[in-house]
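debug: dumping io for the single-chain case to check the tokenizer round-trip. Nothing else runs in this session.
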Amino acid sequence: MRIFSLIAGLLCFAEVLVDAFQTIILPRRASGRLRISRAILTAAWIPWRAIAGRMRRTRRRESFLSYFGPLSLLLLVVVWAAGLIIGFALFFHALGSPMADAHSLGPWETDLYVSGTTLFTLGLGDVVPLTVISRLLVALEAGIGLAFVAGVIGYLPVLYGAFSRREVSIILLDSRAGSPPSAIELLQRHAGPAGEAVLQTLLVEWERWSAELLESHISYPQLCFFRSQHDNQSWLSALVAMLDTCAVLIATVEGDAARQAQQTFVIARHAVIDLAHIFSPAKSRSRHASPEDRLPPKGVEEVCHQLAKVGYTLCTAPESLDRLRELRGMYEPQAVLLGRLLMQPLPSFYPESGRRSSNWTIVAGLRAETEASLSAGSRGAAALIGAMSEEEHRF
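debug: decoded output
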């Protein structure tokens, strides 16, 4: 029985330490399938997602889903602490419970009590270890408890810092691509020579954003479950909208922005593929077309019509449309997989019909009125100057 307790304690202790090290400290993708954090996320997300799927109101469903990310972190910390307490209690049990207990509890209950008070460094002193090995274990557990608390305290600010940096760019995308974002809305708002320069700058920013997303969400997959502030925004919809924009620019649009679109597309696609591989390694390798066709042939015609109407020069040859389809096939299956797993709907290529006027539409309309007034005023001033010149010429 003591050998069994020793082996079980070693396994429990090692599994918790390795998982906590990979989750908190190791700055790269954690390896291994038998991991506590992965099991906790999977076991908790399945029923949580099932309950959310029964909610009909979008706002209530999104509010319910937004609690999962923070609560899963707290649950993971509790499981780690419980694993360490049980592991050291098994060590004490393997030593024959060498404790002087004034309250005469059972041996196993005393071992758990000593382990718990030691890990959290309470130091009540009502139970005293009697052997040298047990005292060494108590000192070791107290040190691990301090390191555990310090690690958790440092872990949470890192997560919320990465979350805040992610959300700033998503919020800024509202004025550039609408909410929810769409590729055609983004391109329409950046039409014209002046808009193309702004579009290239935006693509550079989102290339870096995609790289930061890849680095942070691969190291801390829990961030994928953190929802955005608004129901119609998400990190996945923003990432897919930028991929859609880059695909359209690369395949069909003439201009200098297509050069930067290639670089942004590569990094953004890398993020989608790697994140899909984390949540479902087998399905993420599929290169088959997505069962949900986000851009059917009629949709392609609508895209070309909307872009041509605002002044874009398009290449509408069949080869260009084939290239667009091939580019979409490089990220859409994995994006659809992530959307289903995380319950985050993917954005449409073009703005939804019947949508309420956005702040951008209102502000753009007011600016158009200002420009019309300025143009009329300049014509009136030019006419007045011309009339005055004619009068001076007569005299």
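debug: round-trip ok. The mean pLDDT is 83.
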